[in-house]
């Protein structure tokens, strides 16, 4: 999550638009889905990081 | 050392951000050193604005990803008005990705962008779209349609024209050759592989469209094989991609025949990691006393 501190508002907005039809509006209307998706994303980041570590 | 030329255009590095993974290209300038990226490819632009497929449309699989976003984009008019002026100011080259559901759509989008005073150096044509006039089969699955589409686009632009190939074909070399014969300057290989995700307990499909495109590290060996086959058949440069996460992957893709490489899924982890790839790649070349990265293109040993 540390690396996310650099993310700009424009970038976060684009990520939400990519994930959901309706972007941030959809995310606000479906907070449980958003939280669940963020959790799954963080788990996925850990898997990718393991992959990156294996290449180091 | 990392500079590469493609159709008389010089790129600061062989690293390209893949379409759909770097927004329209202007969302990153505040926290990524764009000068280390050879080129940014925008998300695919269509004639009209599209919201894309319903949710869920992204599924994170084991260190990979399956997506079925459905070409969500703002449409060519909004793109020219809102994004192109910002893209003109970014600190690297950019290429515009174009998608459509019939040949005329591709032509209309490209023609409209050509009139907009953009600084784009070229276009990447996403042929993994259903062809409405031909019963919904993807353009890129048919060599004749790929060639015809390329020929028609070639007539209206002198800029770099890249055809992005689907790997979901029996003979990718045949489609690559048809793009070359149609006048393409380069090919991107490969787009995502067709995949599906299902919940083992409930039996629920995990994407609203059932099928999606698989990307990320799991597809790397499959992508390398496709690029190797293409390299031995076509005479135009290949922009290789498929699961690149480290500088070692970059070199593997270049060694099997890629002139440049596209980084996609890694950008979803952290869009600034592409800068790390640049630094690692540069350090490797210095350490191995390789003066020019292009020396590695197609530089492999048959065993």
Helix-strand blueprint:
The complex is a heterodimer of chains A (56) and B (303).
Chain A: H1 9-19, H2 24-29, H3 31-55
Chain B: E1 4-6, E2 9-11, E3 15-17, E4 39-41, E5 58-61, E6 64-67, H1 75-87, E7 93-98, H2 103-114, E8 122-126, H3 143-154, E9 160-164, H4 172-182, E10 186-189, E11 193-196, E12 211-215, H5 220-231, E13 238-241, H6 247-255, E14 258-263, H7 266-269, H8 273-287
From the structure above, extract its key features.
heterodimer, A: 56 residues, mainly alpha, 3 helices, elongated, B: 303 residues, alpha/beta, TIM Barrel, eight-stranded parallel barrel, four-stranded antiparallel beta sheet, 29% helix
Could you walk me through the main structural features you see in this protein, from its secondary elements to its overall organization?
Chain A is an all-alpha fold. Chain A has a domain at 31-56. Helix content of chain A is 75%, strand content 0%. Chain A contains three helices and no strands. Chain A starts with 8 loop residues before the first helix and ends with a helix. With 303 residues, chain B is of the alpha/beta class. Chain B has one domain (4-50, 72-193, 216-296): Aldolase class I (TIM Barrel). Chain B is built from eight helices and 14 strands. The longest helix of chain B has 15 residues, at 273-287. The A-B interface holds A 3-4, 6-8, 10-11, 13-14, 17-22, 26, 30, 33, 40-41, 43-45, 47-52, 55-56 and B 20, 23-24, 26-28, 30-31, 51-55, 57-58, 60, 62-63, 65, 69, 72, 216-217, 245-246, 248-249, 266, 269-273.
């Amino acid at each position: 999550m540390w690396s996310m501190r650099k993310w700009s508002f424009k970038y976060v907005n684009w990520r939400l638009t990519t994930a959901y039809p309706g972007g941030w509006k959809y995310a606000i209307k479906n907070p449980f889905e958003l939280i669940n998706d963020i959790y799954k994303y963080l788990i996925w980041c850990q898997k990718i990081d393991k992959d990156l570590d294996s290449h180091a | 050392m990392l500079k590469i030329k493609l159709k008389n255009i010089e790129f600061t590095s062989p690293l390209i951000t893949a379409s759909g993974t770097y927004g329209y290209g202007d969302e990153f300038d505040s926290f990524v050193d764009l000068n280390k990226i050879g080129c940014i490819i925008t998300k695919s632009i269509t004639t009209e604005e599209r919201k894309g497929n319903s949710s869920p449309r992204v599924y994170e699989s084991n260190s990979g990803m399956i997506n079925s976003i459905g070409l969500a984009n703002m449409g060519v008019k909004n793109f020219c008005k809102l994004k192109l002026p910002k893209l003109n100011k970014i600190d690297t080259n950019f290429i515009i990705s174009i998608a459509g559901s019939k040949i005329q759509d591709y032509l209309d989008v490209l023609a409209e962008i050509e009139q907009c005073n953009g600084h784009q150096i070229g276009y990447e044509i996403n042929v993994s779209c259903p062809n409405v006039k031909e019963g919904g089969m993807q353009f890129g699955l048919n060599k004749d349609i790929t060639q015809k589409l390329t020929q028609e686009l070639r007539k209206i632009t002198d800029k770099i024209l890249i055809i992005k190939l689907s790997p979901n074909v029996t003979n990718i070399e045949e489609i690559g050759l048809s793009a070359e014969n149609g006048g393409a300057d380069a090919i991107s290989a490969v787009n995502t592989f067709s995949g599906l995700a299902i919940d083992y307990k409930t039996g629920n499909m995990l994407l609203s469209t059932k099928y999606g495109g698989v990307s990320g590290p799991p597809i790397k060996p499959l992508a390398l094989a496709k690029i190797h086959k293409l390299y031995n058949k076509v005479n135009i440069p290949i922009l290789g991609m498929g699961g690149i996460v480290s500088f070692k992957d970059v070199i593997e893709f270049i060694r099997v025949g890629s002139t440049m490489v596209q980084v996609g899924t890694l950008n979803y982890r952290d869009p600034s990691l592409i800068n790390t790839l640049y630094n690692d790649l540069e350090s490797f070349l210095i350490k191995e006393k390789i003066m020019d990265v292009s020396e590695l293109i197609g530089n492999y040993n048959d065993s």
